[in-house]
Design goal:
Length: 229
């Protein structure tokens, strides 16, 4: 009953006071609360709780444009001077890495962030094998060596960018490790287990949840945080 009164008070705050009093005079409080519950049951979970039934709001996830003009990818595609600009690579690549615009004499810069790298070798649309002149080469992006650290690796950073743009985890073929870093530690959740009967003489000053960061002695400053999150 206490929760119902709270809901009633919130509902009253959304209405004109005189209008709300007129409703209470015409209908008993119990009937009023029952009717409110019926209205809530027919409302979708993602709508504002009002007395007027609302239609469900359609939601659609659309990829957002990148914040970078040239996105950073895990792999890079090199095109040598042996290229005869036949367009075979753009024809076979289903990911849109190679861009050969009609009317242009040369290829545009490859969209390296779309390349899946060695995983493509096992398919029948590998651009390196399809090139008649052998002018293509796929290699690891050297920029990833300077991106991130042990905890937030280059893979995790690039995967986070992709998830922010698409609203979903990166496809498996991209080979991006988005779940954990290379620090060899860390945690995803904490669970505190308290004794059934704590010591009577326990002093609060003896309780310490702080931890020290940057213990690798790699030049980074020593930091102590009060709670481990």
């Amino acid at each position: 009953m206490r929760w119902e009164c709270v809901k009633l008070a919130v509902f009253a705050a959304t209405l004109d006071v005189q209008c709300f009093l007129k409703i209470l005079r015409k209908r008993p409080l119990a009937d009023f609360l029952v009717q409110e519950r019926k209205i809530e049951e027919i409302l979708p979970a993602n709508t504002l709780r009002t007395r007027v039934p609302q239609a469900e709001v359609p939601r659609e996830i659309k990829p957002a444009p990148s914040r970078f003009r040239n996105e950073i990818g895990k792999y890079v595609v090199h095109r040598s001077s042996e290229c005869i600009r036949c367009g075979k690579c753009a024809e076979v690549c289903p990911y849109g890495v190679h861009v050969f615009k009609p009317g242009y004499k040369y290829f545009a810069s490859p969209k390296n962030h779309l390349c899946i790298g060695p995983a493509c070798e096992k398919t029948d649309h590998y651009c390196v094998a399809s090139c008649p002149k052998g002018a293509l080469k796929v290699a690891d992006n050297p920029m990833t060596e300077g991106l991130g650290d042990y905890r937030w690796t280059a893979d995790m950073i690039m995967a986070t960018w992709k998830m922010a743009q698409t609203g979903d985890v990166p496809p498996e073929e991209y080979g991006l490790q988005y779940q954990c870093g290379d620090s060899g530690g860390g945690f995803d959740r904490l669970m505190f287990k308290f004794p059934d009967k704590p010591p009577v003489e326990l002093d609060e000053d003896q309780i310490d949840t702080s931890i020290e960061l940057n213990k690798r002695n790699d030049g980074r400053p020593k930091i102590k945080i009060d709670v481990p999150w």
